Amino acid sequence: MLALQEIEKIYFTDEHAVRAVTDITLTVKNGEFVSFIGPSGCGKTTLLSIIAGLLEPTSGTIFMNNHKMEGYSKETGYMLQQDYLFPWLTIRQNVELGLVITGLHTPETSSRTMQLLEQLGLGDKADVFPAELSGGMRQRAALVRMLAPEPSLLLLDEPFSALDYQTKLKLEDLVSITLKNQHKTAVLVTHDLSEAIAMSDRIFLFESNPGTIHHTFDVPEMLRSLSPFETRNHPSFHSYFQKIWEELENVESQYQDST
């Protein structure tokens, strides 16, 4: 579904050239959920922005469904840590905004979006303003806005990190179930290793300076078949967490030694 070939991004200033990511080659299957983890500054969000078409790679190529991607694609949806709902628009107007911008706003797509709003427990909030909603409700509205144009690829940049723990766990389950039901392909950037394990089919561990893929972990089938909340409570979760945690610690130690 998604293929990255030798992606590199270099930031140039008058005095320096900083290599943010280098030699990134990976594939994501249709319907797969993958996560990017690693130390701060290892280029996870930079890479996500490149996939989204918000940044141009210095070199390398990206393919989606075997077609070369250049710039932004309507097939891609992006969800961020902040919901970025427009405060002067109602929730209905906010979640339909992507449909309007992409020229997909019709009675049929509007009806489908309202059904999705109902499914995520916001049906009675369609005509209120964002300030009247809790943080978790706002993120659910942001999820509906992202899904409304029916993108094939969803990019999630720490979408739960600003929420309280209980809301975060509930939203993880809600997002996971929604994406599986809609057979979506997703890439998640997160600093939360538990979240990565609970939601993913595969996990890409990045190392820093410059950012590159250190190791890829396949989440065991026994965990992938569960909801995120059930995964966190599975007997094998802790041992798998420790396995990845030790590798993450090694990566961070190497980065500290190099700096």
Automatic annotation (TrEMBL):
Xref: SMART domains: AAA (SM00382)
Gene3D superfamilies assigned to the protein according to its UniProt record, in alphabetical order: P-loop containing nucleotide triphosphate hydrolases
One Pfam family it belongs to: ABC_tran
UniProt keyword Nuclease present: no
GO molecular function: ATP binding; ATP hydrolysis activity
Signal sequence region: none
Location of the ABC transporter domain: 2-233
PROSITE patterns attached to this UniProt entry: ABC_TRANSPORTER_1, ABC_TRANSPORTER_2
Family annotation (InterPro entries): AAA+_ATPase, ABC_transporter-like_ATP-bd, ABC_transporter-like_CS, ABC_transporter_ATP-bind, P-loop_NTPase
Protein name, UniProt field: NitT/TauT family transport system ATP-binding protein
